[in-house]
Write a structure and sequence with these properties.
Elements (H helix, E strand, L loop, with lengths): L6 H7 L13 H10 L4 E5 L6 H12 L4 E7 L7 H15 L4 H10 L6 H13 L4 E7 L7 H12 L5 E7 L8 H5 L3 E4 L1 H4 L3 H12 L8 H11 L3 H11 L4 H8 L4 H14 L3 H10 L7 H8 L4 H11 L3 E3 L7 E3 L1 H14 L1 H17 L3 H10 L3 H18 L2 H14 L4 H13 L3 H16 L5 H21 L2 H10 L9 H4 L23 H16 L6 H16 L3 H12 L2 H5 L1 H17 L3 H17 L3 H17 L3 H9 L14 H13 L3 H17 L3 H17 L3 H18 L3 H4 L3 H16 L3 H24 L5 H7 L9 H11 L4 H8 L3 H15 L4 H11 L1 H5 L1
Parallel strand pairs: 1-4, 1-5, 2-3, 3-4
Antiparallel strand pairs: 6-7
GO molecular function, one term: DNA binding
Keywords: DNA-binding, Transcription, Transcription regulation
InterPro entries: P-loop_NTPase, Sig_transdc_resp-reg_C-effctor, TPR-like_helical_dom_sf, TPR_MalT, Tscrpt_reg_LuxR_C, WH-like_DNA-bd_sf, WHD_MalT
């Protein structure tokens, strides 16, 4: 699971604030929230200090029971990274769920990096729709989120929420998206400042709860005056109550008359502070720079060792200290109180302000909480230290996919400090990943000029090697291959490709086929992309990047492309080369697509036993690493193999393990699994259910611009419509598939559908030939006829092996030998070992063992020597020469 290592900080963010014993229960507002919670969204909006968070916490506390789920998230400035924002929403849900449900949501958090927001939100909505309890997601302090992308996605999410999911928001400002459509539908409610103001009765209850601990008497007139002058401002009343403990009511009331809230608050904070012991004042001023803290963090910034005692005293004094967990280990100050203190600290001693941030940064870094450490050292303007922290931390943040966070840190540092060449290059990489190509290109050009002026050195070589990687990523997005080749030819041969940030950057966290990722151009195939891919991998290998993930992913994309073009030998050769790299074993995003491609190649020869063995090996690797998402993709592919073998019962078992049902709304994040379910439904003659799934999935594939997926969906629609007697509609869908397929030279997408597709293509060709406008349809007719020829060759060769081998052995063996098995016999005769066979045939040693076992079974022998003798007796070896 991709997760930040600062678990206490995460827990503090997703825990409901602990209520104090003397809070005032506001019955009318509780009823309003309960009524509003029947719709999609309830918002509580008012300036600072009106008790928004407390109100929502009271409501949650009063409504919690077994039939409801409450997920709380306290937002802060760092949550303006969309990946972080949605990941924390998922974490907050996970803490509220049980019975295994939390694991489904954790899988959503892991899919965030590299996934479009639309795909993620649809997947989140799908999982929420499967919950059976009323679920309330509370987002506290929404005003701190200023990223328009998050605002847009949040509005989309709220609009499509299932009826039993409700969102509650608190904010100092109006919501950043329109709620008019929900208000018209009575799906949105708002509690505003006028409703949050304390009434005279609530003021009386609150002040008399304070009075009960003092010998002071507060008259009804004084209560009315206080309510009037503070205008029901809760924080003003709380500050006044603290001041009452050391000043008379008349003195306090005099200072709250006629002032605005901020200045009244500032005065009252000063009044309260002045009555505290000097040690406590210093403690408050030094710790106010911490957004969340425990006693250890307080010890660090105060340079004391008894902070836990001071925190206990602040709790006793009810001094704006808010516990963030039930154990009273983590706290924060009331936001407004902290702002007053920070303002005072900065005015009185700016150098102390920076020093305290530096101390906080050091403490968090020492404890491994690098996000917090970086924020503090940047505030301290310790930019060299910030650069050092970031250099050690960036790989972890990159894995989390929080590019907006990285960009924010880099921009902060570079605005006041000249970045090192290495961090400047990393910033260029982040710009590439976020789609800011023009700026990335300019940065790379500047860095290339810097490198050109550097004397030969190991650092220069490392920089040029890393620049080759960043330029390689840029070229796959802007298509400027000429500039890439010009750069690659101009750099030194002895560059050092050992930077782990770039060398091991993983491009695939969830797709079973690389060709359907951005690295695989979303399924686009052309002779140009083949030429570029081959040149690209050649250059990378020549410069020492042959085991880098970028090199292997491009190669895997080519391998899958060759399979699609029906160039099976080319595909098999590349698969073997990829399998020789250790990185292909260590990286599931590469291993799973590689094994699926190898299994497809085996199935194309009719070697289903081998294909299943290959899938078994990959599944064991995924299980050993507890990567449930990859296990599901492999089970979906195994179901496809069983369907090709017409083994419906086994296919049904595999699909059942996927946990998807025909009646569920399909989401694109599970596209491969859903299309597998559709294939099963087709074999079960359940065409309406299958077509419904495809109709809902197709627009999502179009949104993601997934060519391969659109072709597969259209093919399945064509087969299903024809199967249920709607031949005309079937032809229309086939036309869609052919139009896209012809632009990319797709072959196996049609060939692998078997005789039904062959017949459908034959009918389609006849329809084209009967049309008058042959010139307009000429290219498409040529394509359809080419597919027909491929089918003829495929049928003639047979899926069990070559025609020659079948003819030679059919009368003497129970099952004909395939071309691969004949090659193995020849290699056995030459004395080749299993490892040498694997290298020669571009297969893994495990796959060779399976092939040999199947060969022995066919020959009815058990050893190599017996196999050679039997083959010679049958004349097989002579024939295979």
């Amino acid at each position: 699971m991709i997760m930040s290592n600062n678990i206490p900080m995460i827990q503090a963010k997703i825990s409901r604030p602990v209520l104090k014993d003397n809070f005032i229960y506001r019955q009318q507002l509780m009823e309003q929230i309960t009524l509003g919670s029947k719709g999609k969204i309830t918002s509580v909006t008012a300036p600072a200090g009106y008790g928004k968070s407390t109100l929502l916490a009271q409501w949650v506390s009063g409504t919690t029971h077994d039939q409801q789920v409450h997920a709380w998230l306290t937002l802060d400035d760092r949550d303006n990274d969309p990946v972080r924002f949605w990941r924390y929403i998922v974490y907050s849900l996970c803490t509220s769920l049980s019975g295994g449900l939390e694991n489904r949501f954790l899988a959503l958090a892991d899919m965030l990096p590299g996934t479009s927001s639309g795909m993620f939100l649809d997947a989140l909505l799908y999982e929420l729709s499967r919950l059976t309890s009323d679920t309330y997601v509370i987002l506290d302090d929404l005003h701190l989120i200023y990223n328009p992308k998050i605002h847009e996605d949040l509005a989309y999410w709220i609009h499509y929420l299932p009826p039993h999911i409700h969102i509650m928001l608190s904010s100092r400002t109006e919501l950043p998206f329109s709620t008019i459509r929900w208000r018209v539908q009575e799906q949105a409610a708002n509690i505003s400042i006028d409703q949050l103001k304390f009434t005279e009765e609530e003021t009386r209850d609150y002040l008399r709860s304070v009075y009960s601990y003092t010998s002071m008497f507060i008259s009804d007139q004084q209560i009315r005056e206080m309510t009037k002058q503070t205008e029901g401002w809760v924080t003003g009343l709380q500050l006044a109550s603290l001041s009452l403990q050391s000043s008379g009511p008349d003195e306090v009331f005099m200072h709250v008359i006629g002032g605005d809230h901020y200045h009244v608050g500032e005065y009252l904070v000063s009044e309260v502070m002045s009555k505290l012991p000097e040690e406590t004042q210093h403690f408050l001023l030094k710790t106010c720079i911490l957004s969340r803290f425990d006693s250890g963090a307080c010890d660090a910034v105060t340079e004391m060792n008894n902070s836990h005692l001071v925190l206990n005293e602040l709790q006793r004094l009810n001094l704006f200290l808010i516990p963030l967990d039930e154990q009273n280990r983590w706290f924060r100050y009331h936001h407004l109180f902290a702002e007053f203190l920070q303002h005072r600290l900065f005015l009185e001693d700016p150098s102390a302000y920076k020093k305290l941030h530096a101390l906080a940064g050091q403490h968090f870094a020492d404890n491994g909480w690098m996000d917090e450490a970086l924020d503090h050292v940047i505030q301290a303007e310790e930019y060299e230290l910030a650069e050092s922290y970031l250099s050690s931390h960036l790989q972890h943040v990159l894995r989390r996919g929080e590019l907006t966070t990285l960009r924010k840190w880099l921009d902060h540092i570079s605005s006041r400090h000249t970045l090192s060449h290495e961090l400047s290059l990393f910033l260029a990489f982040v710009l590439v990943l976020t789609g800011e190509m023009k700026q990335a290109e300019q940065m790379l050009t500047d860095l290339e000029q810097v490198c050109a002026g550097m004397p030969p050195s190991e650092r220069r070589n490392q920089l040029q090697s890393s620049m080759l990687f960043v330029r390689s990523n840029l070229v796959f997005r802007n298509g400027d291959f000429e500039k890439w080749f010009e750069f690659s030819q101009g750099i030194l041969d002895n560059i050092i490709p050992d930077n782990p940030v770039y060398f091991h950057f993983d491009y695939n966290l969830r797709d079973p086929l690389v060709r359907r990722t951005s690295m695989g151009l979303n399924g686009v195939l052309s002779r140009d992309t083949e030429k570029i891919g081959l040149m690209f991998t050649g250059v990378l290998a020549a410069h020492g990047w042959e085991d880098s993930l970028i090199h292997l992913y491009v190669k895997q994309s080519l391998c899958e492309g060759y399979y699609e073009w029906n160039r099976l030998e080319d595909s098999r050769r590349l698969a073997g080369e990829i399998a020789q790299s250790r990185s292909s074993v260590d990286t599931l995003g590469l291993l799973v697509p590689l094994r699926i491609t190898e299994a497809r190649l085996a199935a194309a020869e009719g070697q289903y036993t081998v294909a299943h063995h290959i899938v078994d090996e990959a599944q064991q690797s995924a299980l050993a690493r507890k990567e449930h998402t990859w296990v599901l993709e492999l089970r979906a592919f195994r179901a496809r193999l069983f369907l090709q073998e017409r083994n419906i019962p086994q296919a049904r078992k595999e699909v059942a393990a996927l946990g998807i049902r025909p009646k569920d709304k399909p989401v694109y994040s599970r596209e491969f699994q859903i299309l597998t379910l559709v294939r099963l439904l087709r074999r079960q003659r359940k065409e309406p259910e299958a077509l419904q799934l495809l109709e809902l999935l197709k627009p999502q594939a179009a949104r993601e611009q997934q060519i391969a997926s659109l072709v597969e969906i259209s093919i399945l629609q064509a087969l299903l419509e024809t199967q249920r007697g709607q031949a005309a509609r079937g032809m229309d869908f086939l036309s869609e598939a052919l139009a896209l397929g012809s632009q990319n030279g797709y072959v196996r997408s049609f060939l692998d559908e078997g005789p039904e597709m062959k017949q459908l293509l034959s009918l389609y060709a006849e329809r084209l030939e009967d049309q008058n406008d042959l010139e307009a349809e000429g290219n498409l007719l040529d394509y359809v006829q080419m597919l027909g020829r491929q089918f003829a060759e495929f049928t003639e060769a047979g899926t069990a092996g070559t025609a020659a081998a079948a003819e030679l052995t059919s009368s003497l063996l129970p099952e004909a030998l395939s071309r691969t098995e004949l090659d193995l016999l020849n290699q056995i005769r030459q004395g080749a070992s299993n490892k040498e066979m694997a290298a020669s045939l571009s297969l893994s040693p495990g796959t060779i063992r399976v092939y040999l076992s199947r060969l022995y079974d066919k020959l009815e022998v058990s050893t190599r020597t017996q196999a050679l003798i039997k083959a010679q007796d049958l004349g097989i070896l002579d024939g295979s020469n």
